[in-house]
Amino acid sequence: MSETSGSFTAEGAHVGKLGAHKTARKARVTTGSGFMKTSNFIPYLTFFILWEVFSQMNMKLALFNPLFLPPPSLVIVDAWALAQNGLLFDSLLSSTLRIAAGFVIGCVLAVFMGVLMSKFRQVERWMSPLLNLVGPIPALALLPLIIIWFGIGEFPKVLLIAWTTFLPVLVYTVDGFKTVPSTLIRSAMSLGASERQIFRRVLLPSAIPTFIVGARVSLGLSFSALIVSEMMGAKSGLGYIIVDARNYFKISNMFVAIIFIGLIYSIFSALLKLLENKVLSWRKGGMNEAVEK
Amino acid sequence: MKLMVRNAGKRFGERTILKNVDLMVEAHEFVCILGHSGCGKSTLLNMIAGYLLPDEGELLVDGELIRGPSKARGMVFQDHALFPWYTVLENISFGPEVQGAGKTEAKEVGRQFLRLVGLEKYADQYPAELSGGMRQRVGIARALASSPDILLMDEPFGALDILTRDMMRRELRRICEKLKPTTLFVTHSISEAIYLADRVVVMKNGVIADEFKVDIPHPRTFDMPGFGEAMQRIEHVLMENELEEAIQ
C-alpha cells in the first residue's frame, strides 16, 4: 500500500514538473510567434540584399547586360522619380481602387448566386453547365472583346476583375453550402428554427470557411486580370507602367511596378487573413495546434 | 404528451429497415431502445424526430401525425451537433431565441440550463474547446432549453470513454429526477439501458423483439437485486438467434 502511494506522489511530482515545463514552453512560443508575426522581415531583407549584391557584381563583371537586372537601389531611385511626376501615386491609387471594386463586386455577386444555386435546384441545373462552359476561359482571352464592347474606361476593367473573381468564389461557396453537416441542420430544425433562420444561422456560417478559401484563390487570379486590363487601353495603373516602361526600355520602372504589385497583393491578402481570423475565431486546430513545439 | 408508433415500417431501396413497429411512450416515461448496430433503432428515432418519414404505418404525438421536425421533439445527437461558431451559451440559447424569445430572455434561459448541467464557467467557450463529455452536456442542455415535449437521444454517450460515460449516466438521471422529461433513449449498451430506463424496448432486425419494465429504485447500481437478472434476460433475447446460428 505504502509503495503504491509512494509511486503516486512521485508521479504527481513528475506531472507537476511537466506542467511547469509546459507553461514555460508555451510562454516562449507565444512571445516568439508574436515577434515573428510583427517583424518577420529577415527573409525579405536577405532577398533584397542578395539581389543588390548580385546586380552590383553584374555591373562590374557584365555577365549579362546590366540593364536587364537593375539593383534595388536603382529601382528605389527610379521609383522616387516616378513619384515626383505623380504617375506612381496615380497608378497605385487607380490600381487599388480597380482591384478593390472588382474583387468586392465579384465576391458579392458570387455569394448571391451561390445562395440562389443552393436554394433553388432549377437555378443550379441551368447555371452549372453554363458556368462549366465559360469558366475555363482566361481573362486575357476576353479582354479585347470587353474593350470592343465597353470601351477603355474603368467599367470594363472592373468588370474583367469581377468576372475573374466571381467564378472561383462561386464554385467554393456552392461547395460550402453543399457540405454543411446534416446533423447541424437537423438540430436547428428540432430547436424550432425556420427555414430563414437555418439559412442565416447555420448554412451561412458553415459555408464561410470555404468561401474564404475561394476568395483567397480568386485574389491571385484577379490581380492578373487587373494587370492585363491595365496593359491595354489605360492611362494609369501598375500594368500601364510596365507597358510604358517596355516601350521606352526603362526596365527599372518595370521593377518598380512589379514590386508594388507584390506589395498591394500582400496588403489585400493580409486584409483577407484579418477578416478570416475575425470571422473564424471559433475555429481551432490545424498543424500549429496539433503538436506543441 | 403521448407518443404512439403504429405498425411503422421503413425501407431504403430493397432493404427493409423497420417493419410492424408498435411503440407507446407515456408522459414522463424514460424508455430505452436497445439493439445491435443496424437493427433500425436510430431509424426509428429519426422517424419520431421527423427527419425520416415512414413507408408504412403512422407515428402520432397526442393523436397528431408527425410530418416533420418540430421544436416539440428535441434531439441529442451522438456527434453532439453543436454549432461550432456559437459559444456554449449561444448554443443553448439558440432554441429559445429562434422561437421568438428576446435576446436577453433567451440568454437567461440559456444560463439556467447551463447551470443545470454545471457548465456556467464555460459559457463563453466554443464547443471545440470542450471535452467530449462537456459537449454532450451542452447538447442535452440545448435540447432541454427549448422545452420539448419529448427528449430524443441517439446514442448520446456512444462516443465517450467509459468513465465519462458512467458520469454522464448519473448526470442524466439527476436531470431526469429534476425535470421529469419524457425521454426516448437509443443505446446498444444493456447496462446503460437498465441503469437509465423505466422500460427497455429490445429491437432486433427491424422489429421489436421484447420489452422489459425496470422497477429497480433510483439511484441504481450494478449490484442491486434485479439488475444482473435483468441484464441476463435482455442479453438472452439479444443473443438467442446468434447462438443458434453459431451452432448451426
Automatic annotation (TrEMBL), chain A:
<protein>
    <submittedName>
        <fullName>Sulfonate transport system permease protein</fullName>
    </submittedName>
</protein>
<keyword id="KW-0812">Transmembrane</keyword>
<feature type="transmembrane region" description="Helical">
    <location>
        <begin position="255"/>
        <end position="275"/>
    </location>
</feature>
<dbReference type="InterPro" id="IPR035906">
    <property type="entry name" value="MetI-like_sf"/>
</dbReference>
<feature type="transmembrane region" description="Helical">
    <location>
        <begin position="130"/>
        <end position="152"/>
    </location>
</feature>
<feature type="transmembrane region" description="Helical">
    <location>
        <begin position="158"/>
        <end position="177"/>
    </location>
</feature>
<feature type="transmembrane region" description="Helical">
    <location>
        <begin position="198"/>
        <end position="217"/>
    </location>
</feature>
<feature type="transmembrane region" description="Helical">
    <location>
        <begin position="61"/>
        <end position="83"/>
    </location>
</feature>
<dbReference type="Pfam" id="PF00528">
    <property type="entry name" value="BPD_transp_1"/>
</dbReference>
<comment type="similarity">
    <text>Belongs to the binding-protein-dependent transport system permease family.</text>
</comment>
<keyword id="KW-0472">Membrane</keyword>
<dbReference type="InterPro" id="IPR000515">
    <property type="entry name" value="MetI-like"/>
</dbReference>
<feature type="transmembrane region" description="Helical">
    <location>
        <begin position="35"/>
        <end position="54"/>
    </location>
</feature>
<dbReference type="GO" id="GO:0055085">
    <property type="term" value="P:transmembrane transport"/>
</dbReference>
<feature type="transmembrane region" description="Helical">
    <location>
        <begin position="95"/>
        <end position="118"/>
    </location>
</feature>
<feature type="domain" description="ABC transmembrane type-1">
    <location>
        <begin position="88"/>
        <end position="276"/>
    </location>
</feature>
<keyword id="KW-1003">Cell membrane</keyword>
<dbReference type="GO" id="GO:0005886">
    <property type="term" value="C:plasma membrane"/>
</dbReference>
<keyword id="KW-0813">Transport</keyword>
<keyword id="KW-1133">Transmembrane helix</keyword>
TrEMBL record, chain B:
<feature type="domain" description="ABC transporter">
    <location>
        <begin position="3"/>
        <end position="230"/>
    </location>
</feature>
<dbReference type="GO" id="GO:0005524">
    <property type="term" value="F:ATP binding"/>
</dbReference>
<keyword id="KW-0547">Nucleotide-binding</keyword>
<dbReference type="InterPro" id="IPR003593">
    <property type="entry name" value="AAA+_ATPase"/>
</dbReference>
<keyword id="KW-0813">Transport</keyword>
<dbReference type="Pfam" id="PF00005">
    <property type="entry name" value="ABC_tran"/>
</dbReference>
<dbReference type="InterPro" id="IPR003439">
    <property type="entry name" value="ABC_transporter-like_ATP-bd"/>
</dbReference>
<dbReference type="InterPro" id="IPR050166">
    <property type="entry name" value="ABC_transporter_ATP-bind"/>
</dbReference>
<protein>
    <submittedName>
        <fullName>NitT/TauT family transport system ATP-binding protein</fullName>
    </submittedName>
</protein>
<keyword id="KW-0067">ATP-binding</keyword>
<dbReference type="InterPro" id="IPR017871">
    <property type="entry name" value="ABC_transporter-like_CS"/>
</dbReference>
<dbReference type="GO" id="GO:0016887">
    <property type="term" value="F:ATP hydrolysis activity"/>
</dbReference>
<dbReference type="InterPro" id="IPR027417">
    <property type="entry name" value="P-loop_NTPase"/>
</dbReference>
